[in-house]
Amino acid sequence: VAPYLSVSDDPRLLYHDVLVSIDKDRDLNNGLPSLWAYVFDYLNILPGATVLQVGAGVGYFTAILATLVSKDGSVIAYEIDSQLADRAKQNLKPYTQVEVRSGDATKSFQVPPLDAIVVCAGATHIPCHWLANLADGGHMMLPLTASDQKGFMMLLTRRADKFKVSSLGSCGFYHCEGARKATEERDLQEALHAHGGKAPDLDSLHLTSDTATPNNAWYIGDGFWISY
Known about the structure:
By secondary structure, the chain is of the alpha/beta class. 21% of the residues lie in helices and 31% in strands. The protein is built from five helices and twelve strands. A ten-stranded mixed β-sheet has the order 5-4-3-6-7-8-9-10-12-11. The chain starts with 20 loop residues before the first strand and ends with a strand. The model has no long low-confidence stretch (mean pLDDT 92).
């Protein structure tokens, strides 16, 4: 779809199922509302929940998450671009349940147990501390993407020390800095190509590589693998 310039800055223009450009030169946008509504539904975010958002941008969907968790919950929103983080902080001032952090969410951080993790940029692997902070029964949505920014939306659910995964469909996302490796980009691209560019029926994320075999492993990363 060709981009266009809105006729004014009337906020009513945001209430459409369109991409809103954040940085045209970097091809960075807020994300399609219908896609995120679909994703949020699977995450089952309830009032009182604690949610981590990785890649807040200027806070467009952070505000939606804040509404879902209500004032009894909390949203911890990371944005690696300091200028965007400052804009998000300003935009989200009315939401007392939101904390915007300017920094790299792929590095270690202090957070309470998380009911949901929403990643708004494409990764090739999940940082270990994201999984460690995800509560039992919690959900994570992460775009798993290759070097061409294309891949699939992976839904992960934690059950004790088990991580069930499934695909919510194909997607394209801006890269998540700090959560990518060149070798994983290559291997993920090959795994997707083998299934027509899409993810097959998946089962679990495993945090060891010693039990992976060509018969049960769809994608093998650095210290983890995803099974059929």
